[in-house]
């Protein structure tokens, strides 16, 4: 980091880190799982075929690993005006703990883990690390997703 | 979907894939609908070019899904995906083939689980790795 920040002061960083979105709960629909599997072009029967999935060790349909993208986690609000309106997704790191099934009620909360500014090829950027925690109706964390989000 | 791969039969350097994908603009629209990501850079060419892109681009999250499928197909019905990561280093444009590949980088036991680490990536027609990542799966040992 440069010693004189162009936008993001250390005080602003500290105010932002730890901020959480409101929790958002979505019920997972069977049709949404099948539609998602079709959209990503994955014909694995455990996502697509109820009879075959019943015979699998899951005993029924489960969601593909990145399906949780569709349950619309809220975004944490920054405690300051962000003067950059373009958004780039830098990448994701998922950890999986439990399968996601039709009828599950998944609650997602996203949290600002870190934020920094950087001057890159596309100019001044704000780079945030956002951790989304997905919890089912039994209180089990089914997955966490650590995203790198770039505003410029 | 092939048979079941066993941890005992996995060795470092073993290749995963390749699986060639042909994402179309239609697939991007389907993905937008299924995921709820309606950012216009993925289906509106004028909008995309207005933000400085040469064309509409494939959702990073769809590329993440391609890598997920590469690994879950490879690990078979008794495998468990524990971790999946990727970075979006380069843009990919629909209408051009992209290839998903991987290689086993290590295997070990942890807390009674038989785990395999893999390096995975998507590469474009020029062989550039636009979307490198990593995965960890647990497999049945025998």
Question: Please, could you describe this protein's structure?
Answer:
The complex is a heterodimer of chains A (152) and B (142). In chain A, 18% of the residues lie in helices and 36% in strands. Chain A has a five-stranded antiparallel β-sheet, with no helix packed on it. Chain A is built from four helices and five strands, in the order H-E-H-H-H-E-E-E-E. Chain A has a domain of 100 residues: Thiol Ester Dehydrase, Chain A. Chain A has 152 residues and is of the alpha+beta class. The model of chain A has no long low-confidence stretch (mean pLDDT 94). Chain A is elongated, with a radius of gyration of 18 Å. Chain B has 142 residues and is α+β, with helices and mostly antiparallel strands. Helices cover 23% and strands 35% of the residues of chain B. Chain B contains three helices and five strands. In chain B, strands 1-3-4-5-2 form a five-stranded antiparallel β-sheet, covered by helices on one side. In chain B, strand 4 and strand 5 form a beta hairpin. The mean pLDDT of chain B is 96. Chains A and B meet through helix 2 and strand 2 of A and helix 1, helix 3 and strand 2 of B. Strand 2 of chain A pairs antiparallel with strand 2 of chain B.
What class do helices, strands and sheet pairing of chain A give?
alpha+beta
CA-CA gap between termini of chain A: 17 Å
Unreliable segments of 5+ consecutive residues of chain B: none
Estimate percent helicity of chain A.
10-25%
Number of strands of chain A: 5
Overall structural class of chain B, as computed from helix and strand content, comes to: alpha+beta
CATH superfamily of the domain at 10-28 and 71-151 in chain A: Hotdog Thioesterase
Report the top-level CATH class of the domain at 10-28 and 71-151 in chain A. Answer: Alpha Beta
Order of SSEs of chain A: HEHHHEEEE
Mean pLDDT of chain B: 96
Kindly estimate the percentage of residues of chain B that lie in beta strands according to DSSP.
25-35%
Number of strands of chain B: 5
